[in-house]
């Protein structure tokens, strides 16, 4: 029992790492129907910038958060202006896929040249000794990641449902042309959503860096797993991301223990295929009917 | 008169030829990952090589010519290694190539050197098969040499340390899913079987995995008293961190990669006490080693005066001296002649790892035998001698054990 509990704890913590990254995918999808495939790299840049601030310049971890978030905003806006806007303008269905991937690779190479390609240690802002909860161990940092993910979810849901800007975002998603006619600056909304998505990625990078290792290649595998989480949970639901993350994380740790560590990635991905086959909008996603 | 003119012309021609010959540097390829997860080994190796080349050039070079390193970053990728091999052979026309950190890259690239009859010196890659790829009788001559402790030496050493010396009854094996990890796991299992022990858990993980909980829980549930590892720095650090998280701490004993800086730094206190076979430990206990360490620290200024991978640096350094001795003996840079000279080196070569006295023969291309490596231990974020006895005897040079003496192992505790 204790083992199962430990596996679930670790799975939830792992899932939340995926979930905080997956939020970024959701934010851009919610406005422009596009995804930033450089999400993993935005995460990596956020973590490395934070490392420079905290480790290199001796800034307090908590004080560095707003600076890293500001950096994320800027980075996201740049990605949208350079990579996505031209594709949307010419109504290209797939141009943005290549351009966001390309920008991701460029960011990775830049990071390799600035920070090197070695994995670095990110000093943990919380004690590194594990805590015992109901007989199984949890790291304080893991709790912070879980809290961060929940806060992000609440913030996004609140923003979309309660604020006027959020309504503009939702309107842009539902019908871009109609929203434009209603006086919403859809271009700005899309830029903003990209900026916001990179902000969450940078923040996520900073959250998870003390748990994973920090380096130019940290984003690639995590970005992919997060994408799976976004698909399983549904690209339109904040709740879905959290649940999707937990499902994938727990599936990984329990399969690793009860079946074989060689197959630990399989059940999560099988689930992904199942979800795509049965409910393509994701477990919690609303299936939008597109009229062509 | 005419005869004099002829002679003069001939002499001046000779001189011109001689001059251009002298001006020609001896090009040596240096290939390894200078970026990426195994870069601490690659960069240390390269720096060791550069140090040795600098010293030799200062002393007048080899055959009156200067040595020149042609450095290429193979990024630990097999396909890059192949491209580089072709470039170094056909475009740069190197005399020999030193390097290869990653077994997979070595195996993919060596074929081209073998075909071009250009000697290759593996100074870090440890896969057992590396020097066996072109062995007799299918191939009359093998151009692949090595001065690193190969896995079939390391795996039995690891098992001897865990089962023999420290008396653990139950051990778990954790290895990554790369060629390196899985070949090493096989060697470990073989060595355990030889001791009549079976690992209680054999687990694997992928490069870049961030959570090792299932693997560690399985080892824990199986009652493992020690963890034997075959992986590289970052993931090894995740194992150590995972143990800290589970509040379950058993000794880690594993391949020499546990001495990598990115393991020691990322694991922090969790990595203390990890033990691994080492051919060289950064301790100035002989004149030669002191000179080497001082020169390395002065030239490359590593962080905290700690060489990122002392073993790679030392083996890289030694490989240059071995090659230089062979070129000198051959009197030419012709590949087959250099190979013959390596196989019958007449001069003793004093390196930092050991003194090489006839290190190679036609059929034996391994300079390091089981008696040379010692056990290192991570202590205070550095790798030190694990056993006081080894430290005290550190200045005794352990030389290669010839086959018939191979049974004589270093004193057991």
Structural commentary:
The complex is a heterodimer of chains A (292) and B (413). By secondary structure, chain A is mainly alpha-helical. Chain A has one domain. Chain A is 73% helix and 2% strand. Chain A has 11 helices and 2 strands; from the N terminus they run ααααββααααααα. Chain A has helices at 2-32, 39-56, 61-89, 95-115, 140-162, 164-174, 176-181, 186-208, 218-233, 238-258, 266-278; strands at 131-133, 136-138. In chain A, β1 (131-133) and β2 form a beta hairpin. In chain A, α1 (2-32) packs across α9. The mean pLDDT of chain A is 84. By secondary structure, chain B is of the alpha/beta class. Chain B has 2 domains: 25-149 and 284-356, Rossmann fold (3-Layer(aba) Sandwich), CATH 3.40.50.2300; 152-278 and 374-405, Response regulator (Rossmann fold), CATH 3.40.50. Chain B has 13 helices and 14 strands. In chain B, the strands form 4 sheets. In chain B, strands 2-1-3-4-5 form a 5-stranded parallel sheet, with helices on both faces. A 4-stranded parallel sheet of chain B has the order 7-6-8-9, sandwiched between helices. In chain B, α5 packs across α6 and α8 (233-246) runs parallel beside α9. The model of chain B is unreliable at 16-22 and 404-413 (pLDDT under 50). Classes of the chains: A mainly alpha (292), B alpha/beta (413). The A-B interface holds A 3, 6-7, 10, 13-14, 17, 112, 116-121, 128-130, 132, 137, 139, 211-213, 215, 217-218, 220-222, 252-257, 261-262, 264-265 and B 35-37, 39-40, 177, 203-206, 208, 210-211, 213-215, 217-218, 221, 233-234, 237-238, 244-247, 262, 265-266, 268.
């Amino acid at each position: 029992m204790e083992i199962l509990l430990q596996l679930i704890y670790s799975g939830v913590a792992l899932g939340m790492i995926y979930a905080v990254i997956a939020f970024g995918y959701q934010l851009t999808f919610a406005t422009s129907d596009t995804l930033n495939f450089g999400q993993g790299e935005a995460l990596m840049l956020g973590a490395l910038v934070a490392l420079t601030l905290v480790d290199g310049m001796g800034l307090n971890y908590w004080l560095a958060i707003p600076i890293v978030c500001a950096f994320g905003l800027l980075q996201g806006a740049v990605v949208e202006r350079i990579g996505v806007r031209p594709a949307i303008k010419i109504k290209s269905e797939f141009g943005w896929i290549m351009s966001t991937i390309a920008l991701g690779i460029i960011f990775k190479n830049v990071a390799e040249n600035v920070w090197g390609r070695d994995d670095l240690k990110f000093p943990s802002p919380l004690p590194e000794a594990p805590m015992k909860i109901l007989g199984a161990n949890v790291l304080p940092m893991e709790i912070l990641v879980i809290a961060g993910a929940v806060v992000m979810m609440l913030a996004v849901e609140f923003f979309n449902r309660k604020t006027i800007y959020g309504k503009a975002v939702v309107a842009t998603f539902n019908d871009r042309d109609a929203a434009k006619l209603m006086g919403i600056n859809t271009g700005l909304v899309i830029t903003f959503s990209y900026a916001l998505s990179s902000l969450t990625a940078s923040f996520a990078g900073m959250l998870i860096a003390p748990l994973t290792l920090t380096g130019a290649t940290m984003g690639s595998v995590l970005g992919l797993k997060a994408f799976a989480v976004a698909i399983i949970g549904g690209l339109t639901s904040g709740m879905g991301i959290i649940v999707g993350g937990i499902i994938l994380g727990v599936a990984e740790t329990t399969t690793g223990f009860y079946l074989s560590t060689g197959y630990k990635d399989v059940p999560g991905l099988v689930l992904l295929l199942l979800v795509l086959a049965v409910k393509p909008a994701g477990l919690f996603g609303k299936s939008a009917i597109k009229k062509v | 008169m005419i005869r004099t003119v002829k002679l003069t012309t001939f002499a001046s021609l000779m001189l011109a030829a001689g001059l251009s010959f002298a001006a020609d540097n001896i090009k040596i390829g240096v290939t390894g990952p200078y970026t990426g997860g195994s870069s601490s080994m690659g960069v240390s190796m390269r720096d060791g090589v550069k140090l040795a080349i600098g010293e030799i050039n200062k002393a007048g070079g080899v055959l009156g010519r200067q040595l020149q390193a042609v450095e290429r970053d193979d990024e630990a990728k097999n396909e890059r290694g192949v491209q580089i091999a072709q470039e170094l052979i056909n475009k740069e026309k190197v005399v020999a190539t030193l390097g290869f950190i990653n077994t997979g890259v070595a195996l993919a690239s060596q074929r081209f050197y073998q075909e071009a009859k250009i000697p290759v010196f593996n100074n870090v890659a440890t896969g057992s098969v590396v020097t066996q790829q072109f062995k007799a009788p299918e191939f009359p001559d093998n151009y692949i040499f090595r001065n690193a402790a190969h896995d079939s030496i390391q795996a039995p050493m690891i098992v001897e340390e865990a089962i023999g010396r420290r008396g653990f009854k139950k051990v778990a094996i954790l290895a990554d899913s790369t060629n390196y990890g899985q070949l090493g796991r096989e060697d470990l299992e073989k060595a355990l079987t030889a001791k009549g022990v079976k690992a209680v858990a054999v687990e694997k993980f992928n490069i870049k995995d961030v959570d090792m909980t299932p693997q560690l829980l399985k080892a824990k549930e199986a009652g493992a008293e020690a963890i034997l590892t075959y992986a590289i720095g970052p993931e090894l650090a995740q194992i150590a961190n995972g143990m800290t998280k589970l509040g379950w701490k058993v000794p880690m004993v594993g391949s020499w990669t546990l001495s990598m800086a990115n393991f020691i730094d990322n694991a922090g206190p969790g990595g203390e006490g990890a033990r691994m076979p080492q051919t060289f430990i950064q301790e100035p206990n002989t004149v030669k080693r002191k000179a080497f360490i001082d020169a390395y620290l002065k030239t490359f200024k590593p962080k905290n005066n700690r060489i990122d991978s002392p073993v790679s640096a030392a083996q890289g350094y030694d490989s240059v001296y071995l090659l230089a001795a062979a070129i000198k003996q051959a009197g030419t840079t012709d590949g087959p002649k250099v190979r013959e000279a390596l196989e019958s080196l007449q001069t003793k070569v004093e390196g930092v790892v050991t003194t090489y006295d006839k290190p190679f023969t036609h059929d034996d291309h391994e300079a390091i035998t089981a008696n040379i490596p010692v056990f290192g231990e991570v202590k205070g974020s550095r790798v030190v001698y694990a056993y006081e006895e080894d430290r005290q005897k550190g200045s005794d040079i352990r030389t290669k054990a010839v086959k018939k003496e191979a049974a004589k192992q270093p004193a057991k505790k």
